[in-house]
Amino acid sequence: MQNSRALILWAIGLGLISFGLYWQTMHFGAVNLDDPWYLVSNPQVNQGLSWQAVKHAFGPEQATYWHPMATLSAMTDFSLFGPRPGGHHFSSALIHAATAALFFLALHAMTRQLWSSLLAALLFAVHPINVEAVCWLTQRKTILTGLFCAAALLSYAHYARKPGFLRYLWVFALTGFCVMSKPSAAPLPVALLLIDYWPLQRFSQSSPVRLILEKIPLLCLSLGTMIMTYITGLPYGGLNLVQGVPVMLRLENAFVATIVYLGKFFYSMGPTVYVPFPDALPFWKPVLAILALAAMTALALRFCKKAPQLIVGLLWFLIFLTPVIGVIQAGVFPAWADRYAYLPYWGLYIAAAWTLFSLKKTGFGLEKLASALAAVWICLLGFSAWTQAGAWANDVALFSRAVRNVPNSLMLRHNYGVALMGSGRYAEAVDQYEKALALISPEDGPGYPAYLRFSLGNAHLGNKDAASAELEYKAAIALAPRFFQAYNNLGLVYWGRGLENKAQACFNKALEINPNFQDAKNNLEDMGRSGEAPN
Fold it and tell me: What is the CATH number that goes with domain 395-532?
């Protein structure tokens, strides 16, 4: 009993450390990247919990793909806190803290090793790679997979020590909650087989066939989730295996990205949000990446008996990275992203922690040096997580940091321009929009360049440069002839210069394209020419 109390106290301490790192987020707002569409302006979510809302959450009509647990979590936040982002950030920080505590308890239940379990969970709690998942409200789905995955591991540890129907039912339910939070958690049943090998060592107690059959119901859950993901993604373009980015380039980037993720385990440079998928890769990059991965795998296999944490940790990392590595894509897929490492890194935390504490068995006195280095590393990780979390305070802070880290991202440049516009910093917005336009490629088509020209015109207009605004609105219309907002704003430029007939013609053109466009109607009314609007 005393030992159990001590474990609970350690778990609470871990949770408090984690929560303390993200306490500052309760003063943050939502960011202008998916948050408005996914949460703030989503009528199916921002009405809070209700029976109708629950039916919607489990139905096929989802925002891009099926994740009912994440949808229910967002609805619950709206019921508790309303539209105030601080309350939603509080929930995210609390979920991450609870996950760290459960991860520790699960590792201890599987290994009975206090300090290794504590170090692995502490690495998870403070690692800056998790900042994006915790601070970005849209990524509630990511941190929920962590919560339910940790709970499933803890439940599975108890089941493995004393199998029984009710204990298996807990594992089944928690696995279901995990994959219904985000489909990228689908490899969890396969990961449980890794845990059977080490640390549970069930392969020496049961036949491999029995252990595999034991996972069949869990695999069916994962398969069902993937089917629902495919069905709900169809209206948004669905999962993309062969169209768009060439398959060979996806495979090449998958190997390179895997090495990038491994590097970020030791050093994470800060918010990137979106790293554009490359148009091409030098031949040597994927070749070196493949050789490096092969060498690491061979080394882990070489020591699989003396240091099983190495092969288990590496395979956990690779298995959970597979769904998000970019071979199968949906939407605007990045080359890599910090949020995708939330679950895969658990294998690296385990490998690092158990390897560190195995050094004391060498007899060379390395454990003191390794412990000191680990303490310094954890402090640096925690400090980095705290400072990187601060970048998510508002749009300007976030995108200014992001464009420094990823200067060639069209999306980030555009969003930074929008953020600067919202802050009244029009001249700086002009600069960002012009840099975004320089990144346009022929594959982007006319729509996005037209919208960028329109945004640049708005920035010029805010900066009192009507002549430049006129040129940009005309350029937007040339690219997209039915761009009624551009006609309306061009009319505002003419009206401001006293050219009322030209202004009226632009407002009328906007209404001809979209008869319900209220801004153009209001402008004609303010001009005293509402009776001359097109029928």
Answer: 1.25.40.10
**pLDDT top residue among 50 and 156:** 156
What gap in Å lies between CA 159 and CA 151, rounded to an integer? 12
Q: 389 near 135, Cβ under 8 Å?
A: yes
Distance between CA atoms of residues 128 and 22, nearest Å: 11
Task: For residue 512, give both structure tokens.
Answer: 């001809």
Span 20-45, mean pLDDT? 90
- Checking if the pLDDT of 187 tops 80, the result is yes
Q: Which two tokens stand for residue 81?
A: 């806190």
Strand partners, 329: 240
Query: Where in the chain do CATH 1.25.40.10 domains reside?
Result: 395-532
Give Cα separations from 216 to 65, 213, 221, 393 (angstroms): 24, 5, 9, 44
Distances (CA, A) of 347 to 282, 343, 521: 29, 8, 59
The rounded distance, in Å, linking the Cα atoms of 123 and 353 is 9
Predicted confidence at residue 492, as pLDDT, reads 96
464, 430 in Cβ contact below 8 A? no
Could you give the angle at which helices 395-405 and 410-422 cross, rounded to 10 degrees? 150
Other CB atoms within a 10 A radius of the CB of residue 17 amount to 17
Q: What is the pLDDT of residue 532?
A: 63
- Residue 122: per-residue pLDDT: 98
Q: Furthest-apart CA pair in the chain: how many Å?
A: 92
pLDDT tens per residue across span 281-304: 999 999 999 999 999 999 999 999
